[in-house]
Amino acid sequence: MSLAEIQEVPEESLILLSGPPGAGKSTFCHQAVLNGLAMGKPVIFVTTEQSPSGVTGLLREKGMGESVVLSFVDAFTETVGLTCTPRSDTICANCADLNSLSMAATKLQDKIGQKGILLAFDSLTSPYLFCGADITKFIRLFLAKFAAEGNSVIALVDEGCGKEEDLGAMMSVADGILRMDIKENLRVINVVKYPKLEPVKIEVPIKHKPTIKSTWYYEPSVMRQFMRSMFGQDKTVLRREVGDYVNLLWPNLAHWSGMLWDAKGFPTMIYELNKEESSFVKEVMPFFPWRMKLLFKLVNSFQSLGLIPKSFNKVKGMKTISKLGGACIKSAQLERSGTIEYLEDISKADEHYFRVYESSDCCGLEDVGARIASHLPPAMAGQLQGFEKKERDWNAVETKCIGLGDPYCEFKLVPGEIDELKASLEKDSLVIGKIHERLMERVVGFLLDRKPLVDRPKLGGDVHLHVVMHGMGFPHLAGERYTMAQRMGGAKSGREIGKRLMDAGIKEDEAIKRVIAFMNYCKVGKVNLGETVKINENCESMRTKMFTHIKEPSCYFTTGFLNGLFSAVKNQHVREIKCIVAGDPYCEWEIV
Amino acid sequence: MSNDYTSTGIVGADKILGDKGIPRGHSILVAGGPGSGKTTFAMQFLYKGVTEYSEPGIYISLDEDPDDVKKNMSKFGWDLGKLEQDKKLAFINVSPVRVASSEKAGLIQLGMKEFKLIKLLEAIREGIDEVQAKRVVIDPITIFTLQYPDEVERIYAMRDLIADFRKTGCTNLLISELRGTGLEREHQFEEYLAQGVVLLRTVLKDDRLTRMFQVEKMRGLEVDNQPRPYNITSSGIEVYPTLTVFK
Known about the structure:
The structure holds two protein chains of two kinds. By secondary structure, chain A is of the alpha/beta class.
């Protein structure tokens, strides 16, 4: 059993999470809330130890998007003696008055007006301190009842600041009991009881997560397959059934869904991840097919003989390398992410310009009023960094873009920081909304009227599986915020598509069928809909598999997308039960 | 909602009244302590009656100046003056206290009971005719009964009043003071005469006030007679019919 499994609070259940202060209860609870949101559940957060804005801030740090609004019962402000101002999404209550808590939550419940709400109560300790053993009545008569009405409840309580028998009485009502503790560098979660699960003890190492984890991991066999697929003769080594190419709309949808959820964190993460991945160009050399290896060896020896300039600071050096077909230029062409040309006329020492025709990031998003390439510029910067043995930090920023109305994209590469980089990565919600709308129009146009998705005059509509990386594929390297953006963003897109089909008068089953057909058309994998959703050769997990040795379900975008779709169309949810990353032969989702 | 019943206009209260409301033409005693929201309850009944159920109403004040009531209620966003102008709502001031005090300071006029009852009934009939009322509120009935120190007379006067109401077909609320916390108390005789009794009780525990709404009796209806929490919010009274009161 994994941590993720108990961080999804089942319906009609009251889960009590206990532990000493600092055991990580709130963090656990926040994750459960984010998971609930990802499943499309409405969330009521009862906060007693922190203001609603404080909680929102923490959730945002973990990747909750700016546009997501939770319903709050603010039992903090008034309890500490401040004046609480009710807002449309916040109702005030007082920890000293259990009635006010139940009334506030009920009012929000009525407003939400549907079942399947996740109520998070952080924590019961405050009302317990005010109301004593009455809290057990509250748990029984309100929280347990609330759960029994088809909702999920997770409530936190501190161990060690009350009578042992009161804690016992609280636990007797709960459907699930999780006791958390801290031991040296381990977080121990004792699953005392849990619906449909056997009691177990889970130990999680406490980690301090940077945006990107420092240790990169390559699965050698997968890496070799990727290299063979891209540079070798055999174009279907990765996916024998559907081939190694995916319609570029799918990775772009994943990328912009993530942007929709986390406009601040996501673009920087993607930039850093792509740059970092490409900077390992020398380390992955052994995996290249022999012809490529030979080429690199030749370049190396020419360099040491002085026939080719050693550094990339001069235009001449870059020109020679480009002519020879630098790794990125070559691979961009092979993976069909664009045709790259070095612009020697406007380049200077340590300021190189490249032009990209038919960039897969940007085609289909013409003239949206923003620079949109997310993948080639950082990848190229990373490669330069790699070739220079990481002596300098190269960066890249787009100077022309199809998204700005230019006929092609251009970007410049310089060592060191670029001032306008941050501004070009982060986009305001208006622009993101516009881009996402453009993608939605394409998808829905295809679904309703079989309008073509995207086509490029020379490179066509497909990109190599390798390109899927820029939107999906790094979950275990990038951590929670990234996976959250993938999942939540996916859910938003799935829901939006579902809703639009329903609005167009398409019947439920037909709507699902059409979206599945769309996924098959995009060659996401071989998607089959039966009692479950099964995807053979799912591009997301095929790509993720390269970067991880963690064997657990990891299709964050696909899961979010299916979840959003099913919840909008049939009020159902999906759960990934099998995953290629986890070692299963295919990815599978049960429909609940 | 069936035609035999009419909605209270109080969020959550109809649910307690068997999902139906108050039987039409019945006299309901609404008893509560000071600050429990009796007048708010009554005005919400009248206001929602006009605005949501097209049932005009009259408010008969035996105590407070109707202008004060109108002003107080504006905090809930209810424009009662407008409804009055549109002849959907009538305010009738028959306050014996104030009439007396203006003439003879400090004295409450007693005696002439028959006249008082007749005067009250007349006022009610006039009011009903004026706006074609379907709902009537007397706030508070206590002032009326106070005029009959003799218990037998008091009961007869009350019975006559209720019988007269029955004839008009108007659903009416009789507002009454509730002494004590309402947890342990003597029943007032009005409770026996009225066809329904609603209690708005407040309990002070430590320094927190708990409000409880309870339908003690409602003739002709299966009701939930457990106390349920209620709240006075910026939009009026809200009752939470599914919640248990934590005292």
